[in-house]
Design goal:
This protein is an alpha/beta fold and about 300 residues long. Helices cover about 40% and strands about 15% of the residues. It starts with 6 loop residues before the first strand and ends with a helix.
């Protein structure tokens, strides 16, 4: 079963995966409607293409999207407020995120979409010592993870009720151009480029990093062939000590730069093993990660350098 897709809607299109997905969809010949917050300065990062249309719409106004866009085949929902820091436990804000997800499903149905794809998170699982699989029990430990889990489950039921396919990806750790400066990878790159010494944990965590371009390819594969009702953990499928990623990142800038590994302690809820089992995703869609970390981090560093000028 392969869905024929010609038009796509993308909310939250200005992040690392969102921009990469818009680029990927355009390469496939789709018409793309990129739904941005009104006045968003990051909307300038979107590809310039006659088939990409920026749609100014606040999350609270998703009900207006069918009127603004018309017909569409696929709906990719990345928009989510309060994803880092104390905002993760801003419970009223996280509850609103759940409501906006349901609003997005209803807008997708009204536009005639064949499939709704949601961006979940590894935070839905909580702390797991083993590899994350579609059926791994989920015990989130913060409001963000709880809300993502709820949004995934509620939007699945809503799609079933409305007769529309639903695919939910639980994203582990993604890096790449257009990532926010507060993430571990981007923050470390910025600090090193500015001549500082990043303060880091000992870096013993086993981590699974996926390049944003590969994540976009995964979402494109899921849109075409993802199984209705599926939950897919999304990563590279391989885990390495965080220290190795940081060292590779540093060496791509300047091997002589010092690193502050071990300068800060692990947090009380530190996840020490983060690795996705992507076998179901590969079997259902044919997705295969293509970008080695050393290659992807060079592209990321080049992009951060270009934006700093």
């Amino acid at each position: 079963m392969k869905r024929e897709l010609k038009t796509a809607v993308v909310t939250g299109p200005t992040g690392a995966i969102g921009v990469a997905l818009c680029e990927r969809l355009l390469q496939e010949g789709l018409t793309v409607y990129a739904v941005c917050r009104p006045g968003s300065p990051r909307a300038e990062a979107l590809p310039r293409n006659d088939r990409l249309h920026k749609v100014a719409c606040d999350a609270a106004d998703y009900a207006s999207l069918p009127e603004k866009i018309g017909q569409a085949d696929a709906f990719f929902h990345f928009a989510w407020a309060h994803t880092i820091g104390p905002g993760r436990n801003d419970m009223p804000a996280q509850i609103r995120n759940i409501g906006y997800t349901i609003d997005a499903v209803r807008a997708a149905k009204a536009m005639g979409c064949k499939v709704f794809l949601g961006a979940g998170s590894q935070a839905e699982y909580g702390r797991v010592s083993g590899i994350l699989r579609p059926d791994t029990p989920a015990f989130p430990e913060n409001g963000y993870g709880m809300a993502k889990l709820c949004a995934g489950q509620m939007s699945r039921v809503e799609c079933q009720t409305l007769g529309m396919d639903h695919v939910w990806a639980r994203i582990l750790s993604v890096y790449g151009p257009h990532d926010g400066p507060a993430t571990m990878i981007s923050g470390t790159v910025h600090t090193l480029l500015e001549g500082g010494v990043p303060k880091l944990t000992a870096g013993e965590q086993q981590w699974d990093y996926l390049y944003a371009g590969d994540a976009a390819q995964a979402f494109w594969c899921m849109a075409q062939s993802g199984r209705n009702g599926a939950v897919y953990p999304l990563g590279s499928g391989q885990a390495r000590p965080l220290r190795e990623y940081i060292t590779t990142l540093r060496d791509a800038i300047n091997p002589a730069l010092p690193l502050g590994l071990g300068e800060i302690p692990y947090g009380p809820l530190q996840v020490m093993h983060l690795q996705a089992d992507i076998s179901a995703l590969q079997q259902d869609t044919g997705f295969v990660p293509a970008t080695e970390f050393a290659q992807g981090i060079r592209k990321t560093i080049d992009w951060i350098r270009s934006t700093a000028q």
